[in-house]
Amino acid sequence: MKLFKWKSGLKPKFPNVIEKFFGKKITDEASWDEDVSLVPSVNIADKDKTFEVNVALPGVDKKDVNIEIRDNCLVISSEKTYENEEKDENWVRREYGYASFQRMFELPESADPDKVKAKMKNGVLSITVGKKEGYETGKKKIAIQ
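Request: output the structure for the sequence above.
Response:
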């Protein structure tokens, strides 16, 4: 599984739309694990009626991906193990593998957790989160007197 690697001390530069989606300001003071983390690349777009989340998952089968809404968070995870054994007259070779990841995104107030759809094509997981109807986005027009 080829995934994007982040090392300690490196911080991705998130555009403002990502900070709005998370509902929090991302600072340089964020702590990162000392170990190398394997996380898939994610793009998030704020459209008129939906939020669109695209996750790069090359080599991952859709049956190995779990998507759920938990405590007002969109949780995307995968876990896979494998075992391979080769035998010959004088030797045995066994290989074991394990790969997993989990990404969690806090849904903004305008997101409707009942309007979530997902599809996977060519190694890209596309998730659409609908927005609540009639929700105003913190903008207020002020009349001039």
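Residues 4-26+36-131 form a domain with the Immunoglobulin-like fold (CATH 2.60.40.790).
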